[in-house]
Amino acid sequence: MNDQLKKSIPEYIMYSINRCPEKEAVTWIDGKAITYKELGTKIEEVGLLLKARGIKAKDKVALLSENSPHWAIAYLAISFIGGVVVPILTEFHENEIHHIIRHSEAKAVFVSEKMFPKFDGIFGKDINLAINLDTFSVIPPNTTKEKLKLLYKEKRSSVVKKKEKLFEFIGVQANDIQEDDLAVIIYTSGTTGQSKGVMLTHKNLITNVLACYSLQKMTTEDRLISILPLPHTFEATLGFLLPLMCGSKIHYLKKPPTPRVLMPALAKIRPTIMLTVPIIMEKIFHNKVQPTFNSKKVVATLYKMPFFRKLFHQIAGKKLKQSFGGELKFFGIGGAKLAEDVELFLQDCNFPYAIGYGLTETAPLIAGASPSQTRFRSTGPVAFNLEHKLINVNPKTGEGELVVKGDSIMKGYYKDKERTNEVFTSDGFFKTGDLVIEKDNFIYVKGRLKNVIIGSSGENIYPEDIEAVINENKYVVESIVYDFNKRLVAKIHLNYDLIDEAMKSFNYSETRIKEEITKLITTIRKEVNSKVSNFSKLTKMIEHSEPFEKTPTLKIKRFLYT
Questions:
Q1: Has this prediction a pTM greater than 0.85?
Q2: Mean pLDDT for the chain?
């Protein structure tokens, strides 16, 4: 990456296009790669299409699709003509998607064929310009999903090829875009009344990319596999903008990253960089790695001893590194708190992991470290280009709310001045809503301020910490802890496949199985209470038969269950 500061995303992308035109930029895992030179051409062609259809600088354009090379091209084409990208998470309900399109005042939408059914209810009513992201063809009004499939088969394209240009690619150029111009509006929720359109400028994003680059350099030789949703700021900044500004190569999967899809891809690509959320590594450890330590009684006994635990972790870790392709140098984890037992495994086996912390409103990185600097249970120091402090500090514990100020902090919430004012202090610091401790400049996140439960003697109880202990049990998939009439209660979703496997040889009746599950839940509660402080002990544990409903970033929607 060029150290000379530039004003906009297009300027940095143009630098990569000019510096390494023949290097591969984006590709499907099994597809033909698009070089940086070709990327530049495609950005220009799609930009011409937008301009020909009346889209101009500062207009909002929504992007509704799964991860793909075309998602990258559309995002950059919007940016290159000075437009504002409105990336929409595909997991949102169609009503939420419609609300986001209306609220953002989008003038056009790029939509994939797969996502079209979630969009067509608003097409021709609140928005009239839709572009098929799979073919870059304009979708005629009143198009049904069946007709769209026919159009896709014909592979019609509306992009203006260079040799067919009817006008020059003029108007807004990369160097005309100012650093304070709006680059994206990101919605963390699509629910009416709850939706917050986070406004991030070119300066916000570039500042954050530079902070990420200071922690982990990327080069033209680096390879990434993108498995997190691109509308998620974590993936968009660290897994999309940063690598393209550095001339790296990004691979996209055509299917969801299940083990059956991901493992062959890892073996083929041998990525050097990967980004993920805790739940993915937790599933790998609890479902694949940990059972090997309990497979034999002698191994299970030895595993309880620190020396042998570390030895077993190192052996398992070596195999895990190979399953990731053997060339991984940075495995970034963010979005939520990582389970302690999983991090202990990663640390023991010298896995090249690093835990970052941030929010959509901060573009996203606030604190992070390289794998060599990572400290157990810490998210690393605050980024070098941010000011920070702790407010309302508890003198007994040192815990306080982290507030930050700097060029990567959002411009505000779109069309919501009141809510914007609420999240900033009088001296201009953004309130993260997270309680943290700072030791030797390293940040340790304790929990969300809104989730903290106050104990009978005034203690701060962090439900996330208790949940992490509960989830260590192999029979538990996930859990939530909450306060009910001044008592701590947990709801747990069990691993029924594992329970069935354990009970199948007994031929129990349904009644007996229910009794055994009740006993198991009692045992789990006692086990958890033996591992937590007195004021964090659970008085009740309730079975929750269905998986908890989650946000698009895989966090449990607590408000539905507490």
A1: yes
A2: 92
